[in-house]
Structures are given as structure tokens and as C-alpha cells.
Write a structure and sequence with these properties.
Elements (H helix, E strand, L loop, with lengths): L37 H8 L6 H10 L6 H19 L18 E2 L5 E2 L1 H31 L4 E3 L9 H14 L4 H6 L6 E6 L4 H14 L2 E8 L9 E7 L4 E9 H9 L1 H8 L5 H16 L13 E2 L6
Parallel strand pairs: 4-7
Antiparallel strand pairs: 1-2, 3-4, 5-6, 5-8, 6-7
Length: about 325
């Protein structure tokens, strides 16, 4: 149940409605938690030492994106059209729900939950919405206001769809010895946010926003840097709201890495159904690799270390 690729698409938006006003930065940033390891404390303390002069220098060193990405995006749309010609979605056999009891649930990938289990998950999803609205999203908007050079993208998609939550609960129940409550609570991205940065300010911005998240009282549980991966580019982090224990995800992207994620989302979704043969799997993975290979890596992004919280077993 580690950090894996985000599996629900976030629609990017540069509309003013998707951002909150940005007052002047008051310079207040909190340090890392005392519970962090010494290595992490030392590494991330450096992010508060970055000066405005260094940020400006970084902006001057990064050349504007070339037409390569535009060409890649156009090619990706064509490739996906060819994929549909070879494997038409309408020819996939439909899932038979004709004998399922009322109140039960069955996914398009044939995962099944009985009526009592489905009802309990629905109730838990309602509680997740309450935690998001009352505590987590207001804090995320506050963090967003502290830096006008980046924004929360796709904020309207911050809640994972309930069908996908149920798929993950089903898998957790079948793969691990968990209670139903644990199977729900261990899903790291029922609530998720995406920060989108300019390439030149990406690395500095990620460091700064991790500090701001900690300053809001959130606990960093895991961080996975995928800038060196061949099928997905970006950073995903998992956080815990301390009062409720609610987990949520924060993704860190550039405009192009976010577009690449969206272009390959349907391929990833098809792969996770586990209903593809070896040849289709090979084609889908090759598609993801082609798109991701053209995503520019921001300076210093690949060097941001992975992190996993140490849990005191005492």
C-alpha cells in the first residue's frame, strides 16, 4: 500500500476561480517535525535557506519549453486513437450485474462488494467529505495563498470517485488482513491535491510547500519521487491530518508533467483492470513511456529524496 501512480485524472485549470487571492508573503515557515529523522531534518532545513536571488538565477537558467512537447502531445492523441482502433472499448464484454442483490456493488473490472459492506463504505465516504471540507481544504487554500508563482490545479477534482474508492477497499480486503475500517483509512488518496509549478521554480517550490504543509499541522507519511521513472513523472506525497487521522495526497507537478499524466491516464486505468493480454499490456506501457520520455525534468527535481515516516513501535 505504498505510494503508486495517481489513478484519477486532475483537470488542470489556470482560471481565477481555481485559485485564491495571494497576499504578500510574510516569510513565516515552520521547521520539520521533531519526530523526523536527523537526515530528513538536515536535508529539508536547506529549503528555508534558498534566497530570492537563487530563485531568480534558476529562472534564468531554464530555457523555454521547445515545440517537442507539443509534437509529443499531438502524437499521443494519434497513438491513442490507433489503440482504440485495435482494441475498441465498445467490444469489451459488459459486466453482468443481473443477479447481484440490491444494495451490492460491482465494478466494471468485476470487483464485488455485498450490500452491508457497500453501505458501510458509503457512510465512510460521507465522513471523508466532512473532513475535507472542514479541515483539509481550507488549510490547502491557505497554503496556496502564500505563493502566487504556483497554484492548486484541478481543485474541483480533489475527492476520489466512490467507485474507485470501493475498488481499492475491495483490493485491500482481499490482499491484506485488514478490517473494513482499516481498508478504507489506509487508502492514501481519497482526498488529493496537485500543486503546479513553473519548471524553474519547481524544486524550490516543492521544498517550500512541504514546510508549509507541516506548518499547518499535517504529518508527512511518505514521499515518492518519480522524476527518474520511465512511465510517470512527478512527485507524490502522502499526509495525515493529525486530529482525525485522515490521509490525503499532494502531488507536485509542472504543467507538462501534469499534461503527460492526463494523456496517459486512460492507459494506466486500463492496465489496472488486469483484463489485458500481454500484447495489449506491452502497447499500453510503451505508450506511457513514449509520452513520459518527452517531459522536461526541472533542475534539481530528480535529487529530491524519497521519504518514509519512521513509526515508533514502543
Amino acid at each position: 500500500m505504498g505510494i503508486d501512480r495517481p489513478d484519477d485524472v486532475d483537470a488542470p485549470s489556470d482560471n481565477s476561480a481555481d485559485r485564491t487571492p495571494a497576499p504578500a508573503d510574510d516569510g513565516r515557515q515552520s521547521g520539520a517535525s521533531n519526530a523526523e529523522t536527523r537526515y530528513r531534518e538536515e536535508y529539508y532545513s536547506a529549503r528555508t535557506q534558498v534566497t530570492q536571488e537563487e530563485r531568480t538565477t534558476g529562472a534564468q537558467q531554464v530555457a523555454p519549453a521547445s515545440d517537442t512537447w507539443t509534437e509529443t502531445a499531438n502524437l499521443a492523441h494519434w497513438m491513442w486513437g490507433e489503440y482504440h482502433r485495435r482494441w475498441p472499448p465498445e467490444e469489451r464484454p459488459p459486466v453482468d450485474r443481473s443477479t447481484d442483490p440490491p444494495g451490492s456493488w460491482r465494478s466494471d473490472s468485476n470487483r464485488y462488494l455485498d450490500s452491508p459492506t457497500n453501505a458501510r463504505i458509503e457512510a465512510e465516504c460521507d465522513r471523508i467529505v466532512e473532513r475535507e471540507q472542514e479541515k483539509i481544504s481550507p488549510a490547502m487554500r491557505d497554503i496556496e495563498r502564500q505563493d502566487p508563482d504556483r497554484h492548486l490545479s484541478g481543485f474541483q477534482h480533489r475527492l476520489k470517485g466512490r467507485d474507485r474508492i470501493k475498488e481499492k477497499v475491495h483490493d485491500n480486503l482481499n490482499e491484506y488482513s485488514l478490517s473494513l475500517d482499516e481498508a478504507v483509512s489506509f487508502i492514501p488518496d481519497t482526498i488529493r491535491y496537485t500543486f503546479q509549478y513553473e519548471e524553474a521554480r519547481y524544486t524550490w517550490g516543492v521544498h517550500a510547500d512541504i514546510t508549509r504543509l507541516e506548518g499547518q499541522g499535517f504529518t508527512l507519511d511518505k514521499l515518492k519521487n518519480s522524476w527518474s521513472d520511465d512511465q510517470y513523472k512527478g512527485i507524490n506525497s502522502q499526509w495525515i491530518e493529525r486530529d482525525t487521522g485522515q490521509r490525503f495526497e499532494v502531488q507536485f507537478h509542472t504543467r507538462i508533467s501534469l499534461e503527460a499524466k492526463q494523456l496517459t491516464h486512460d492507459a494506466y486505468a486500463r492496465l489496472r483492470t488486469l483484463q489485458v493480454d500481454k500484447f495489449e499490456e506491452m502497447v499500453l506501457e510503451a505508450f506511457q513511456k513514449k509520452v513520459s520520455s518527452e517531459v522536461p525534468i526541472p533542475p534539481g527535481a530528480a535529487e529530491i529524496p524519497d521519504y518514509k515516516r519512521e513509526i515508533d513501535a514502543r
